[in-house]
Amino acid sequence: MTTLDKFIVENRNRYESELIDWLKIPSVSTDPAFKADVKRAAQWLAERFVSLKFKTELIETCGHPLVFAQSPVIEGAPTVLVYGHYDVQPPDPLDEWITPPFQPTIREGKIFARGATDDKGQMITHLFGAEAWIKTTGQLPINLKFLIEGEEECGSGGLYEFLAGKYDTPERSAEQLIKADIVVVSDNAQYAPGQPAVTYGLRGIAYFEIRLTGPKQDLHSGLYGGSITNPANTLSKMLASLVDDQGRIQLPGFYDDVIELSDNEREQFSSLGFDEQAYFASVGVTGATGEAGFSALERRWARPTCDINGLWSGYQGAGAKTILPARAGAKVSFRLVPNQHPDKVYVALKSHLESLCPPGITLELINIHGAPGSMVPLDSPYMTAAAQAIEKGFGTSPVFIRSGGSIPVVNAFAEQAGMDTLLLGWGQDDDNLHSPNEKFSLADYHRGIATSAHLWEEIGKIRQS
Ligand code: BES
Ligand code: MN
Ligand code: MN
Fold first, then answer.
1. Is 156 in the pocket of ligand 1 (CB under 6 A)?
2. Separation of CA 388 and ligand 2 centre (Å)
3. How far is the CA of 125 from the centre of ligand 2 (A)?
4. Over the stretch 270-309, which tens digit does the pLDDT of each residue have?
5. Residue 288 in contact with residue 280, Cβ under 8 Å?
6. pLDDT at 463 over 90
7. 464, pLDDT greater than 70
């Protein structure tokens, strides 16, 4: 065993206790009540970088601060930018947690806490991967930069302003700070337990709220029904019109920019031997519908979708209440495949809904957020380096997968700065991210740390052309 590997094994207890400390900070970014805690998380992280002698800055933004840190410069060595987020989703519903969300608890080799996998636990594997080098050899084999944001779960407002140069000073610009040969992100999942993966595609997203207003207040449905347009009926029609019986989205031009799956990629997916029945069983269903002609894996990873995320109108209490509701609303999001653009979806959705809006109903469409998806080239020396590091850290070579989730800034790194991203997830799909009882396997946490340390070495071997 090398000195580096030995150091990582000997520090397992400390890695776990630091993770516990980190997860105790309730850095819920969307809720202003947690503002001071979010700041405390940024400071906790910044202190760790300072103690590694990284040049560290807490960059204040319109929202929560960014943490930027940079290792001492080694001329001629490759530069890696690690991106992640220190904010977490709200823990609600609290009564569904077996142990409280901000009292990290270990059960059956997993740590349960909000942020365990998304993204605090995954993110700090790279901090410890770097620390192992510094503590054993005095320096890293590459130039390492960290850009860790506190608003990933609520729109990344401050990060986008930072990337646009809004917080540049005479001494430094965002462009210089983030400049790297490759970006590394661990904010996603492995293929399955025991099967690590490199993710080369993420879906984008376009998220909307639809608000319909009818009469000035709820009305007696006997006295008025049939003569006044019902916003709930109208909303149901609108929503039902979005997807047909074949699972195809009905917005005009929606599929124009979709890149079709190649035969090769479909074969690649099917060679993973995905067990659809086990997948359905894992979420408590016995079957499912979706776009005709595609497998469940293809639909999740490489096809666009439309999902109603929330829906409200009328009477929801016990028993019956005969009303014609005054209002109806829905949150609707589309997952997009690479090359589709959320702005186009907004324009198409707006004109589609307007064409369906009858007399007596006012329509409001709110564009909440959006980001295109991403694809990462598979034939790069960085991919090879990542695969080798995973083989060393996990003892198994990775499979190459896509993911249905979205990490919006990955597209911005490519479009604005021409940087590709290595998406190296240490989590599992069933880690309950955004849900009660979020968890992260401690074995994967330690493998992630070892892989990170090996990754810096593998990337360090890549000669710059
Ligand atoms: N880490 C997740 C995204 C993720 C999870 C990607 C698992 C791949 C596999 C991230 O924190 C997240 O929740 N993203 C949001 C983005 C949205 C709010 C713009 C998502 O995917 O819903
Ligand atoms: Mn995340
Ligand atoms: Mn998330």
1. no
2. 24
3. 14
4. 999 999 999 999 999 999 999 999 999 999 999 999 999 9
5. yes
6. no
7. no
* Any ligand 1 atom below 6 A from CB of 205: yes
Q: Mean pLDDT, the chain, as a whole number?
A: 97
Domains of the chain by range and CATH? Answer: 3-202+373-460 (3.40.630.10), 204-258+304-371 (3.30.70.360)
Distance 429 CA to ligand 2 centre (A): 12
Question: What is d(CA 281, CA 287) in angstroms, rounded to the nearest whole number?
Answer: 8
pLDDT above 80 (res 465) = no
Q: Which ligand does the CA of 120 lie closest to?
A: 2
The pocket of ion ligand 2, defined by CB under 5 A, consists of 118-119, 187
Given this model, what pLDDT does residue 365 score?
A: 98
- Cα angle 60, 66, 72; round to 5: 110
| pLDDT over 60 at 456, yes or no | yes
Side chain identity at residue 352, one-letter code: H
Between CA 453 and CA 313 the distance in angstroms is 53
Residue 329 is encoded by which pair of tokens? 């609303």
- How far, in Å, CA of 177 to CA of 142, rounded? 16
Q: Which of 256, 258, 251 is nearest to 339 (CA)?
A: 258
Look up the pTM and report it. 0.96
pLDDT at 1: 86
- How high is the pLDDT of residue 155? 87
